[in-house]
Write a structure and sequence with these properties.
Blueprint lengths: L1 E2 L2 H4 L2 H9 L3 H7 L4 E4 L4 E7 L6 E5 H14 L3 E5 L9 E4 L7 E4 L7 H7 L4 E3 L11 E5 H5 L2 E2 H8 L3
Parallel strand pairs: 3-5, 7-8
Antiparallel strand pairs: 1-2, 2-3, 4-9, 5-6, 6-10, 7-9
Length: 163
């Protein structure tokens, strides 16, 4: 497993520049999956998520789109791994293409990507600012019951691993 998240591989001053930029290229780069997992039989991206809400999971919108397109068009899997309040800390996993948002939230900061994300997601859209202390990027809302339906990480990996 190799770290590929920008904040693990870039200098702090470069991370600050990327966080201030709202261009599609900057957002896409800084929201790359956290890891690439690889062995001789298989490779996939892994995106780790946590959350304090017991009723919803929040995922950044643009990277979910990019990961879903990588998966559906290029056949490069991206596994979302969640451990948070929704699952009482248990780790669960799903492919990005199996994630279906119930709502999309777009702050003003993301006006440059608004057309991209609204064309991709068919769920209701809310335009509003995000909470202080967050990335400020557009995000989707996933119902807790959907995430509780994901496989445990152990079961997911057993199904994924070739016999």
């Amino acid at each position: 497993m190799v770290y590929i998240a920008y904040h693990h591989i870039q200098y702090p001053q470069d991370c600050k520049k990327l966080r201030r930029s709202d261009t599609p290229a900057s957002i896409s780069f800084r929201t790359m999956p956290d890891f690439i997992v690889s062995n001789t039989e298989d490779s996939f991206y892994a995106e780790l998520k946590v959350g304090a809400s017991a009723s919803k999971v929040y995922l950044e919108a643009l990277p979910l789109i990019v990961n879903q397109q990588r998966e559906s068009i290029l056949h490069i899997p991206c596994v979302y791994i969640y451990a948070g309040q929704v699952t009482n800390g248990s780790m669960v996993a799903a492919y990005s293409t199996d994630i279906h948002p119930e709502k999309l939230v777009i702050p003003k900061r993301n006006s440059r990507i608004k057309n991209i994300i609204t064309k991709t997601f068919t769920c209701p859209v809310e335009e509003r600012e995000t909470r202080s202390g967050t990335s400020g990027d557009a995000f989707v809302v996933i119902p807790a019951e959907d995430v509780r339906g994901w496989l445990s990480l152990e079961n997911f990996m057993q199904q994924k691993t070739p016999a």
